[in-house]
Amino acid sequence: MSHHFDYPEDETLDISDAFCFAGAGSLLGPRTVFGMNTSPTYGKPWNPTGQYELKIDTNGDYVEDITFRATFPIGADGTQHVQVEQLTGAAARDRGASGTIITPPNAPVGEVVGCHHGIKLFAGQRYDPFYNFIPFPVATTKALATGTFPDLDALRPAHNDFANTSVRSFVLEVPVELTGHRPVHFWATTAYFDTGHNTWVQIQRAAEPNMTTFFDFANGSAHVNYNGSVPKDDLVGRPAHPATDPASGIWGQVRDNIAAVVEAGGTYRDLPHSFPTARAYGAWAADRLLPNVITFTPGTVADWNPWCGVHNGKGITEDIASNIIKMIVNQDFSSGLEPGPVLDYFPYVSPPPAS
Description:
The protein has helices at about 135-145, 175-180, 210-215, 250-265, 280-290, 320-330; strands spanning about 15-20, 30-40, 50-55, 65-70, 80-90, 100, 105-110, 110-115, 120-125, 165-175, 185-195, 200-205, 295, 305, 310. It is of the alpha+beta class. The chain has one domain.
């Protein structure tokens, strides 16, 4: 679960999750899946005036080099279609720019679509593959806001509150020749056009789980519109001596919020990540969570568990909600929940529940 709690006014622009993992591959080499889920719980149709973007940095500077932008126009007969543009270079960072349309005309939603360059596309309503017991993130969010330590075991037994709910999935499977074999950074965004100010406005940015669920950047010490920002903004305010010096911005708030939690619990001294001060642990955690991107090496197995030293992609069956809680409390933790149904072929996310 990445963003189920930070609904914008229009939930069809709400990103519940972003994910990136190895596709089935082919004789021509590895293929990488880039995807995002929106409209959590009920999987309402996409906003026809919005932009849904998958952003990929291929050279390690945390600036997008490729953007796959999906829009969902409605035809004269009332049918919604999907159109995907591929934008590269400076155009990838410009919402007003036009790119190469890789979809056929009037590409249908709810079906696998073959696109230019060997790309596969699926855009449709799907079963929410991510799972969580809502009291766990609620307690963690409260602990971060108040500088206390959560008693997560007192909340058990756990059940999956996302069972039998649906989302809208926008999924691409991309040949490795388009991104290269080197590690890539990936994140997803949504935006709408503000006619009053004649500009595009970014509504959400998502990559690693729960970042805006756990950290209230607008009302916390960062005082920023995190969802309107870009990954490089995440490091603004990181001091030269991160374990000791005052810090500001997104990075500073993540460090200091986590430091307060492990100070309250006394867990900053615990193995395997033992530090002399809570602030030093908080700096270590902030450096592993920020910039907020999903880093993935094409052709490898995805596993997002930075507390255990693994930070490679983010699949759709991982207990990612537990894995980020480990970072907050510096203790091993598992929800004990099992993933929902998934497919072993594209688009990998399962059809929506019958109900």
